[in-house]
């Protein structure tokens, strides 16, 4: 699908100033922009956001995703002129996003308290490593540090190896997502009261929020989660299993689902076996059950196994890379991937806008700005009524 940009989205009319750089702040801006907000991104003159050069391969393209739906305004926040410009834009904005080290805005004469005094309706989203308060607030913090402190890194990988990481910057994007969620909640509050507020999203807390019962398990029973590789202890079967031509993920840990898997294996008696008949029993015999299933899947191709799992209505799926996503008919049918025109690359295929709203869907209305500050004059005229 080619992104058409016809839908204005539910946040049409909301103005956002994005002061952040790298991942967390800009991803929050991407989410709000996808939902229809007008995003004015302030970039250092000349160099711009380092994200312009991030990505993999000989043509890094991450910028095309994280900067879509944004207008680039060249603004040196370290200078008096740049700070004056930022204050002028903030006075006319609904939301301001920043992900600098706490205290940086204050140092630049852009204290959120002062910005909100001039514009009481302003919502300021502040994304940082440790939050705006507490003994660690002044420390520098990137996504990986938040993942470590929030407990993620301790449980990712295999027990006989050092902690691993995901192949994406999950700490940054989680903190950005919570920042976006906070901004939407603050917009609702403002609708009722007329008052904006500060949204304080910490990287380590965003990671902590998705750590399920890690802390409560320790609180109740002293249990510490450890690295367990590709399995979750006590959840079986739920693993990646070998096929003759690849790997395949099966999640059949419910009693009824496991019975269907056993029947598909030609081993219906397994569902009545005391070792595997219940959730707790399967968890207690997880390794031997995984070995039994792996011996069966190894006799099949991925396609053969998938056909059996679909017929048996067992949750399962292929492990996709980008090429397989682009070739899959379900991605196409739901427009999960869209193709966006690009002045340098011609077109760029990227993830679409999620979640999907039935009445006011979001959209990609404009590609990422190619040049730093390319929209400065237009934004200053539209927002401030003056030429750049």
From TrEMBL:
By its UniProt entry, which Gene3D superfamilies does this protein fall under? Crotonobetainyl-coa:carnitine coa-transferase, domain 1, formyl-coa transferase, domain 3
Which Pfam families would you find in this protein's record?
Answer: CoA_transf_3
Alphabetized SUPFAM superfamilies for the sequence:
CoA-transferase family III (CaiB/BaiF)
- What Gene Ontology molecular-function terms does this entry list? formyl-CoA transferase activity; succinyl-CoA:(R)-citramalate CoA-transferase activity
Q: Does the keyword Nucleus apply?
A: no
Q: Please name the InterPro entries in this protein's record.
A: CoA-transferase_III_domain, CoA-Trfase_fam_III, CoA-Trfase_III_dom3_sf, CoA-Trfase_III_dom_1_sf
Per UniProt, which keywords does this protein have?
A: Transferase
Look up the EC number in the record and give it: 2.8.3.16, 2.8.3.20
Q: Which domain of life is it from?
A: Bacteria
Report the protein name in the record: Succinyl-CoA--D-citramalate CoA-transferase
């Amino acid at each position: 699908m080619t992104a058409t940009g016809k839908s204005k989205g539910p946040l049409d009319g909301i103005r956002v100033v994005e002061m952040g750089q790298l991942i967390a702040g800009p991803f929050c801006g991407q989410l709000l922009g996808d939902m229809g907000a007008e995003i004015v991104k302030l970039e250092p003159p000349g160099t711009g956001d380092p994200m312009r050069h991030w990505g993999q391969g000989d043509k890094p393209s991450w910028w095309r995703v994280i900067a879509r739906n944004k207008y680039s305004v060249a603004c040196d926040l370290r200078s008096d002129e740049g700070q004056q410009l930022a204050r002028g834009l903030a006075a006319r904005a609904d939301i301001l996003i920043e992900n600098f080290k706490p205290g940086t805005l204050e140092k630049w004469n852009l204290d959120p308290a002062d910005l909100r005094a001039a514009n009481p309706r302003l919502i300021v989203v502040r994304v940082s490593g440790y939050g705006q308060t507490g003994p660690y607030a002044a420390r520098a913090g990137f996504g990986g540090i938040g993942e470590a402190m929030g407990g993620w890194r301790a449980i990712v990988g295999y027990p006989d190896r050092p902690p691993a990481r995901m192949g994406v910057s999950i700490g940054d994007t989680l903190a950005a997502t919570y920042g976006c969620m906070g901004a939407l909640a603050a917009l609702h509050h403002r609708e009722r009261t007329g008052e904006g507020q500060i949204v304080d999203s910490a990287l380590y807390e965003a990671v902590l929020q998705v750590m399920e019962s890690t802390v409560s398990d320790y609180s109740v029973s002293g249990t510490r989660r450890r690295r367990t590789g590709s399995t979750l202890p006590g959840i079986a079967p739920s693993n990646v299993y070998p096929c003759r031509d690849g790997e395949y993920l099966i999640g059949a840990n419910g009693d009824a689902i496991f019975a269907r898997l056993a029947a598909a294996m030609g081993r219906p008696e397994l569902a009545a076996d005391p070792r595997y008949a219940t959730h707790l029993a399967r968890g207690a015999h997880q390794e031997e059950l995984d070995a039994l299933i792996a011996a069966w899947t190894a006799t099949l191709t991925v396609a053969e196994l998938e056909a059996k799992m679909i017929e048996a209505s067992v949750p399962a799926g292929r492990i996709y890379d980008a090429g397989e996503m682009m070739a899959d008919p379900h991605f196409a049918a739901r427009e999960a991937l869209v193709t966006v025109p690009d002045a340098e690359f011609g077109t760029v295929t990227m993830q679409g806008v999620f979640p999907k709203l039935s009445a006011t869907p979001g959209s990609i209305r404009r590609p990422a700005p190619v040049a730093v500050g390319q929209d400065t004059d237009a934004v200053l005229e539209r927002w401030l009524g003056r030429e750049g």
